[in-house]
Design goal:
By secondary structure, this protein is an alpha+beta fold. The chain is elongated.
Length: 398
Amino acid sequence: MPTPSRSAEPSGTVPPAGPVAARIAPAPAPVAAPDAPNHRVKIIAGLIVLVALGAGARMWYRSHYFVETENAYVAGHVHPVSSRISGVVTKVFIDDNQIVKEGDVIAELDPFDQRVKTEQIAAQIASAEQQVLQADAQIAQVKAQASAAQAQVAQADAQLLRTKQDAERYGQLYTSQMKAVSKAELDAANAARSGAVADLAARRDSVVAAKAQIGAAQAARDVAKAQVDVLRVQLKDAEQQLQYNRILAPVAGRIGKRNVETGMRVQPGQQLTAIVQDNVWVTANFKETQLANLRPGQSVQVSVDAMPGKTLVGTVDSFAPASGAQFALLPADNATGNFTKIVQRVPVKIVFQPQDIKAMNGRLVPGMSVVAEVEVNQPDAQAAQPASHAAAPANAAR
């Protein structure tokens, strides 16, 4: 029987093991590796698209329902403290950043000059009052002289009447047939009558002169009395000036920059320091294109640069009556041929609740930079009463 060849072996026969079999065994088919880089790129691209869509949606939402400005600053009442009179500073009772109350003494000036002025005016008043008394005495004396002159006028009038009667009687006796009197006696009677007429005229002139002296004396008294009144006003002013030697705090607050030292000579109106009150607010300069939906009473989120992560809640109080450019030292003149339209900014006052300001413990001070953000889709709050309106009576009373 012939031997079967190897090629006729069935395909399912297990080949013999060994190195030879290993060399002739067919290689396994290669497995396709997953496309990992492409899959990762698709995921990253999808995330970028989602982030872009989210950012775009957020920007759209904020642009339609929020207005924001970084051109905003804390403002407050800064009261300058100055001297009303000139003088040399003898004592200073304050220091930088010190808390003071209304009426506290800031500094004292040397009172010597003002005291001397007060004493001089008091002496002038005493002298003027003596002149008034002398004028009163002179008026009384002249009135007595006028009364005596008036009495002498009455006597002269009676004397004139008697001499007239004598002259008439002597004239009748002289012209009678008996000629009871002589020509000399008649002439004497006529002369006596003429003398009485002259004496009456002189007495009347004396009365007129006495009345004129009364008027002059009264005028002199009025001048002296007016001088007394003027000096008394000057004395009152000098006494008030003497009190101005003590420079007092006009309001309660904290001392700002101190510009006064002992020994300094100050002039009237010279600023010595400033007092900053705790009642502060924010002045936010919004663009005019952002004002369409802003209303008084709307809530405002205020972020202070000096307090990262701290957000204060304020309220829109009021709008300025004009743009900031109108209050500039040199307002823009657009009447010339060259014109560039610039978006104007309008100051908006934002106030806080008093308890919120108090909770800041003086950390919120005028001049700080803030960011103001208003959600403009809030309900219309025009009827709401701003916080500053409630505090207005207190400020007015102060």
